[in-house]
Prior knowledge:
Layout: H1 10-20, E1 28-33, H2 39-46, E2 50-51, E3 59-63, H3 69-79, E4 85-87, H4 96-109, E5 120-122, H5 127-133, H6 136-146, H7 155-169, H8 174-181, H9 185-199, H10 206-232
Parallel strand pairs: 4-5
Antiparallel strand pairs: 1-3, 1-4, 2-3
Amino acid sequence: MIERGGPQQVARLIQDVLRSGHPLPEKVRAVMLRTDTDIHLVASALGDCLVSTPGEAPGLLIPAALADGKSGRARLKGVLRHRAAVVGHAVAPTEAEASVRAASRLLDLASVHDGPDAGVVFVDDHLSSLVLLQDESLAHTLIARRLRPLAGLTPERCERLEATLLAWLGGMGAPEVAKALSIHPQTVRYRMRQLEKLFGPRLRDPRTRFEIEMALRSRQLMAAARRRRTGATRRPRVTTKPRKALPRP
């Protein structure tokens, strides 16, 4: 186990390790934690890895193979039990900062507390969400542009139409949408007629349909993140060290 620096200084550390002759795995993953409680015990259980130092956002850099397959994931979940943690995507050691950034971003969107309800989340399972939310300013611009026809509706009506439209854009027909939303197929058809009046020919353009779906999913993801943050303010806070911003590559 290499206990020097951590994922926040990974570019320099990788070069130091290469110069020292210490072997590096072909691929690595960042593991970002909500708190640094027992982080060295976690590192000991996982084996050879880089560990963040006090004052940094708590995290590890592990061989990517440790998270491969069902058995690898199960072992990681066992070691990280009761911790809010995110396992980054596999990258070459020289690109490890990208795994740190993705895992840190997802950690901001995922569980906010350690404890029995906390769990391990894998970047590999949330790639599209991270791509959509990597620039929230652009996401808001896309939402404003592509969902403008819904702007004048009441929140309740907007929510119903958005859910119907998102299911339809996913390739479902009226019966499938009705089953997914627990409504009658005729209700789906009525809503789709409303949506066609609101959006017009834009729903027949493949590129526009794709961007509308992106806008709907972005709004959905940001709303879920807001709910998690609001819920976090109502729960006892866990004492943590402040998370530092990641350095720009």
